[in-house]
Amino acid sequence: MLDGNPRLNLASFVTTWMEPECDKLMMAAINKNYVDMDDYPVTTELQNRCVNMIAHLFNAPLGDSETAVGVGTVGSSEAIMLAGLAFKRKWQNKRRAEGKPCDKPNIVTGANVQVCWEKFANYFEVELKEVKLREGYYVMDPIKAVELVDENTICVAAILGSTLNGEFEDVKLLNELLIEKNKLTGWDTPIHVDAASGGFIAPFIYPELEWDFRLPLVKSINVSGHKYGLVYAGIGWVIWRNKEDLPDELIFHINYLGADQPTFTLNFSKGSSQVIAQYYQIIRLGYEGYQNVMENCRENALVLKQGLEKTGRFNIVSKDNGVPLVAFSLKDNSCHSEFEVSDMLRRFGWIVPAYTMPPDAQHVTVLRVVIREDFSRTLAERLVIDITKVLHELDALPARISAKIAGEEDKVKNGMVVKKTALETQREITNAWKKLVTDRKSQVC
C-alpha cells in the first residue's frame, strides 16, 4: 500500500496493465516451469511461434519452411548477454583460426546505452568503448563509432530507442559506414541492435525505417516483450539473423527432464506465464492492434509535449520520432532545479525521474515521462496541470538553497581543502530543500 501507483510511474518503460483475461491466463500458468519442455510442450511451442513471428516482424531472411533462431529470456538484459557472448565466441574462433591473439575483445557503443551493456562488458571481460555524447546530440554518432572500431571489435551496438530521450540511432548509416571500413580493412565487424524499447514500435508506426535484418551487417536483435511488447515484467527476446550467427558450442543439450532439450540461457528455471502472455498479446492484437496502441501512445506524447511547451518554462529534449516519451528540461534552473520539480511531483502521486546526461553532456539535466498503453490523454492533461502547480509553488519558495550550499566552504581534511563531489553536493542540496518543504508543511495556519 505504501508503494507508488504503477500507472503513475512515468519513469518505467515496463508494462503496468494487461487485459483481465490475460491476468487470469497468466495465473493459470504460474506453476509451470518454462524449461520443462517435455512436460509442457505447449509452452515450448508458443515460445517457438513467438520467436518466428518476431523474426518475421524484424525482416529476418527466412525461407517459407525455415525456423527462426532465437530464444525467450527474462528481459533484454539477459538477451544482450546472450547476443554479446555469441559475438565474442564467434570473434574468438575466427581469431584462433587465423593464429591471432583473442584476449582483448572490445565492443563499441554510445555513452547512452543502458547499464546492462556495462554489466556485459564487466562480467564477460570485454572492453567497452563508448562514443561520448554532446549537448543537443544524445545518441551515438555513427561516424565516431566506426572510428573506434578496430580488429578486436566483436560488434557495434546500436540503440533503437535511447533510454535518455527515446531517440532512434541511425542504424542504416552505421551499416553503410561499417561496410566501407570492413572492405578497407578486411574485417567483418557486425552490428547488434538493442531494440529493447523500440523493437515493438518501429515496425508498426515507422515501417519504412531500415534498422533491422534488412541491413546485412545486423546479425542479432534483442527486444523487451515487457516494454512495448505489452507484457508484464519478465520477458525479453533475442533473435539471430541465421544459424551461423549463433555458435553451436554455446548451446547445451540436457536430457534429465525427460527428453533431449537444447538450451541457451543464463538462467534455468522460470515461470511460463510471460511467454504465454506474449503469445496472447500477439494473436489478440495482431499487426493492426499493435499499430493502434503505438499510434495512440505517440499521440498522447504529443499532447503532453504541447502542454509543456505552452507553459513556456521547458525545453523539449526528446524527438517526435522515436519511443513515445517526453524528455524536457527547465529553460531557467538558476532558482530551482529539475530534481526539485521531480520531488514535488511525488506529492501528487506522479513518479517522474530527473537525471543528468552521460559524458560529455553531464551538465544537462532532464525530466522524462514515458508514455505507455495505460497513460491516457486525460492523464497527460492532468500531469501538465500538476506540473504547472509545482512551478508556481517553487516560484513562491526562497531562492534556491543550492546557491547557499554551493557557496559554503569546502570540507577541510588534514589541513587540506577537499572539494566536495558532485554527488555529495547534490545530496546536501536535496536534503536541505526537503527540510525547507517539510518545515513549511508543518506550520499550522
What's the topology here?
Layout (H helix, E strand, L loop, with lengths): L19 H9 L12 H17 L11 E5 L2 H22 L8 E5 L4 H9 L3 E5 L10 H7 L4 E7 L11 H15 L5 E4 L7 H4 L12 E7 L11 E5 L11 E3 L6 E3 L9 H39 L2 E3 L8 E6 L7 H8 L8 E3 L8 E6 L6 H20 L4 H7 L3 E3 L2 E3 L3 H21 L3
Parallel strand pairs: 2-3, 2-4, 4-5, 5-6
Antiparallel strand pairs: 1-7, 6-7, 8-9, 10-11, 11-13, 12-13, 14-15
Descriptive key words:
2 domains, 445 residues, 12 helices, Aspartate Aminotransferase, domain 1, seven-stranded mixed sheet, single chain, alpha/beta, Aspartate Aminotransferase, domain 2, 15 strands, four-stranded antiparallel sheet
Give the biggest beta sheet: 7 strands, mixed
CATH topology of the largest domain: Aspartate Aminotransferase, domain 2
> What's the name of the CATH homologous superfamily of the largest domain?
Type I PLP-dependent aspartate aminotransferase-like (Major domain)
Order of helices and strands: HHEHEHEHEHEHEEEEHEEHEEHHEEH
- Strand tally is 15
- Backbone structural class: alpha/beta
Number of domains: 2
CATH architecture of the largest domain: 3-Layer(aba) Sandwich
In spatial order, strands of the major sheet run: 1-7-6-5-4-2-3
What is the highest CATH level, the class of the largest domain?
Alpha Beta
The number of helices is 12
> Into which percentage range does the β-strand content fall?
15-25%
The residue fraction in helices comes out at: 40-55%
What is the rounded distance between the termini? 30 Å
Rg is 24 Å
Can you tell me the residue ranges where pLDDT is under 50 for at least 5 consecutive residues?
402-410
- Molecular shape: globular
Overall pLDDT level: 90
Catalytic activity: L-glutamate + H(+) = 4-aminobutanoate + CO2
Modified residues (N6-(pyridoxal phosphate)lysine): 227
Keywords: Calmodulin-binding, Decarboxylase, Lyase, Pyridoxal phosphate
Cofactor: pyridoxal 5'-phosphate
